[in-house]
Amino acid sequence: MNGRDCSDPGNQGYPRESKNCSRRMFVRHLLGGAAATVLGPSLTHGGGTSSLRTWREAASELIGDQPADETFWGLVKELFPIRKGLIMMNAANLCPSPYVVQQLVFKYMQDVDADPSFPNRAKFEDLKEEARAAVANYLGADADEVAIIRNTTEGNSTVISGLTFSKGDEVVIWDENHPTANVAWDVRAERFGFTVKKVTTPPHPGNAAQLLDAFRAALTGRTKVLAFSHLSNLTGVALPAKELCQIARERGILTLVDGAQTFGAFSLDLHDMGCDFFTGSAHKWLCGPKEAGILYVRKERIDKLWPLTVGDGWEEASLQGARKFETLGQRDDARVAALSKAIGFHQDIGKERIEQRVRGLAAALQSRIRKGIDGAEIVTPLDPELSGGIVVFSFPKMAGMDLGALLEKLYQKHNIGCNVLPWGIRLSPHVYNLMDEVDKVVEAVRSL
Questions:
Q1: Is the residue at 18 inside a domain?
Q2: Closest Cα to residue 417, out of 82, 52, 186?
Q3: Contacts of 147 (CB under 8 A, 6+ apart)
Q4: pLDDT recorded at residue 67
Q5: pLDDT by residue (tens digit) across 385-405?
Q6: 435 belongs to a structural domain
Q7: 296 burial level (CB within 10 Å; 0-12, 13-18, 19+)
Q8: What is the percentage of the chain residues whose pLDDT exceeds 70?
Q9: Residues 383 and 304 in one domain
Q10: Average pLDDT of every residue of the chain
């Protein structure tokens, strides 16, 4: 490299004979010197025509709803520590965090371990409030309506256990809710004597009206709560949340929206949606730190919801809006603080652009599956009003296969991380996936 090191800030010439040097210079500028020094070699592979610009600059040059090209998304992919060659399409379960989030978690963990004294850890209160403000802005909510909890399950359980019911009351739920949410309602009902009514929607809905009609028919004068997943992790069907919340509100019914599959994937505005409660996990589509999640409680409902856990600081927190739902005992301060970095990562790309990309990848999967796999049956609707980032499909020979062996074969032979359900293969691509990976996945399934 003509004696000039990539770490030399005066190396403005970016020697033509050293592409790796230029690449490392870019990554170091992108992630910060310390992170790039640690991660260096693993980030020097790949192409891209904008290697001398940061991804923030690249995103800022996209005007309005202008879509990004594959070069841009290839740049985004390099921000994730995904093993080379691995095609991860399991965002519905667990997403990798980008380096910027991962490194911040490590930094804060090291800080706490180096000095766990009260004076040193005091800064995490301010960092938590920064994270809360970032989440609220991202979701179209007020900061006092947001509790930073551990995951969606905890958020759902807080609402399920925190509301007051009497015998004769009804709760209406979707039978495609995450199993843990529905079981939690059943356990609560068994203890306190109210009724849980499960709604089944058409297996292949043709329009949103069919979904709305199924729920509307189930509501009665005794219904106190309508609880549903915004997007089903079982079929990939998305419910018209705003319309459902409006129907419920007109009847004086509370709404709990499980946003596990849309928090980080959809551009959301909770005030506009009109729900009373919304839950989500950072470890899925937000690509955030693990064991960090959110519980949104509409301002008017905070006083009427009891906390799931009462811990240290309750007296003060109980007077500060939704904070009263996060007195959970000792937390991993590093993960809570790093939540704001995950939000910032999404905001820098553009949450509308992320939703557009997620939907584009899902649509491409559906199209290629239909064309490339004989006899394939796609469970997930193609209509973007009725779907999101999850695609579930089956093929004729799947009925006779060992599902565990099928999952293992996709992973071991084809380097594909996904999920296999009794009724189909579930693919859930995200911003770290490229269109050529869509083709590889479909070809791998076709070869089976």
A1: no
A2: 82
A3: 155, 158, 294, 295, 296, 297, 322, 323, 324, 325, 326
A4: 77
A5: 999 999 999 999 898 899 999
A6: yes
A7: buried
A8: 87
A9: no
A10: 88
Residue 215 and residue 240 share a domain: yes
> Residue range 227-251: average pLDDT?
98
Helix (H) or strand (E) holding 88: strand 87-88
Residue 189 token pair = 């009902």
pLDDT score, position 191? 93
- Asked if 125 and 168 sit in the same domain, the reply is yes
CATH of the domain at 232: 3.40.640.10
Contacts 24+ apart (CB under 8 A), 72-78: 73/357, 73/431, 73/433, 73/434, 74/46, 74/47, 74/48, 74/434, 75/48, 75/50, 76/349, 76/431, 76/432, 77/46, 77/431, 77/432, 77/433, 77/434, 78/27, 78/43, 78/46, 78/48
The whole domain housing 377 covers: 351-447
Q: Residue range 407-421: average pLDDT? A: 97
Q: Would you state the structure tokens that stand for residue 447, as one six-digit string?
A: 């070869």
Lowest mean pLDDT among 19-28, 221-230, 423-432: 19-28
What number of helices (H) and strands (E) belong to the chain? 17, 13
SS3 96: coil
pTM of the model: 0.88
- For the chain, the residue count is 448
User: Both tokens of residue 95?
Assistant: 């997403």
Domain count within the chain: 3
Q: How far apart are CA 260 and CA 229, in angstroms?
A: 8
Domain co-membership, 317 together with 403: no
CA distance 281 to 297: 15
Beta-sheet pairing, 293-297 with 277-281:
antiparallel
Whether 92 maps to a domain, the answer reads no
On whether the CB atoms of residues 159 and 305 are closer than 8 A, the answer is yes
Q: Are residues 336 and 372 located together in one domain of the fold?
A: no
* One domain for residues 380 and 443: yes
Burial class (CB in 10 A: 0-12, 13-18, 19+), 18: middle
Q: Which of 253, 269, 326 is nearest to 294 (CA)?
A: 326
Would you say residue 387 lies in a domain?
yes
The end-to-end CA distance of the chain, in Å, is 48
Which DSSP string corresponds to 244-256? HHHHHHHTT-EEE
- Are residues 344 and 387 located together in one domain of the fold? no
From 329, 348, 367, the end of a domain falls on 348
Residues 208, 289 share a domain = yes
